[in-house]
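Risk register update: the risk of archive-format incompatibility is retired. Evidence:
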Amino acid sequence: MPRAFRIAVVLITALLILGPVGLVVYQSFLSGPFFQPNSTLTTQAYEFVLFEEEDFRDAFVNSAIIAVGMTAIAVPLGCMMAFLLVRTDLPGKRFIEPLVLVPMFVSSVVLAFGFVVALGPVGIVSLWVKGLTGSIPWYLYSKTSLILIAGLTHVPHVFLYASSALRSLGSDVEEAARSAGAGPLRVALTVSLPMIMPSILYATVLVFFLGFELFGLPLVLGDPERILVLATYLYKLTNKLGTPSYDLMAVVVVSIIFVTLPLVYTQRKLLAAASRYVAVKGKASAQRPLAIGAWRWPALGLIVAWLGVTVVIPVTALVLRSFLASWGEGVGIWENLTTAHFRELMEYPNLVRGIVNTLLIATVGGALSVSFYALVNLALHRWRSRWTAVLDYLVLVPRAMPGLIAGLAMFWLFLFTPFLQPFRQTLFSLWLAYTLVWLAYGMRLVSASLLQIGPELEEAGRVSGARPAQVSRDITLPLIKAGLIGSWVLIFVTFVREYSTGVYLLSPGTEVIGSLLVSLWGTGAVDLVTALSTVNLALILVGLGLMFALGNKRHA
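Archived output:
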């Protein structure tokens, strides 16, 4: 492609990324809203938030504690599950492995609702246990419960990277350790897992970073006990002083970016190290499952128990509650089954609009986003330039912002920029926010397909006289068609489950399921929340079904 076109793509992408961030940083140094002419430059907001505001300090400390706690739970469990499912003769692992990734595709706010419905003070499971034992042996709305649930639901993130690295290893070293008398656990702890340490460190930083951007779980599980984290503190700061505190909100946003950006940068460095490390084992011998003997069934039981607690119990309880007319102590299930909540859902135009808009954003918007990701990737494809390195780092910036913050930044951008103001209350603003929030993820999906195309095919096209644009259109794009479709399916599921990005962009006409769930929860409309959550789960199930069907077709 022409150099001028490549540079233009980089500059436009950079502007889309840095525009909202720059506006937030600018607002953090103003005495009032950026759109007020009398606002002046000052550091008063920083002085108030960082040195006088106790809630901010509490939120920061809580975020750090939760991030450490959930990392301490997710990393060991994720690594052990990866070892069991990839390196051993665990029974049924072919069917269990896809299920392990399910929590990654379910919205955390929906899972939080499920835990409340299942394990809350009047939860379905709680009342059943109380009927058997006379008491409920847990309290859902504590910091300990929040850390435990956050850790369990983030196990798949560790599993994904650990299992990928383990597949690159041969089994010769493990077999040698077994021949020397080492048991399965010792092999895992002293041989297999140490050999993938860069990937484990990457996953550790990832989970710790995700702990700082938690929003859905603490919003639902921490609210009754006022357990503030940075994201929920920002959300509640909107009307803390009676009116939107733009300057204070901007300071909190900048603080979160300053905490998370170094973590994202560290991830990048660790991922590069992990790739180099695994390459050493590229010529490893064929893998042979490690026999774990009598430990096969206890290990299987551990994984099934994790799936039960993390997915089956909350999701089943949530779906069941959506079909119950009411629920409480002494209320029976069978005599209260109804579809009334779903009929009520259809009586609210904004909720119906939210479902339709979610489908539009996920299908049409997802396709447009993948097209944008493909365009940027093609512009950078096989281009050895400093511009490529610049964009590589720029795409990390949205990743350092939780969806809630990115949505707020986009809201301010559309409010501040005159030619964008007409689009502020349209789905375009929401689509653009989604596209930028998931920019790094989408770029990685498409680039993975491009890397599979050998350079000789494109060189043949250029030798025959085709222009760079023709080579991309007639050779490169057709060859990655299956990869682009797969990327669209993954983006479809991602956009369906997204909830925090649209919170500040929610307005009549731009409702989506995720932001409506947050809004409805604040009003206490449990019946509508469970029904709309079930609809959201159904759409995610459709997306996962498409992924499964596409995977089978590609391997047929």
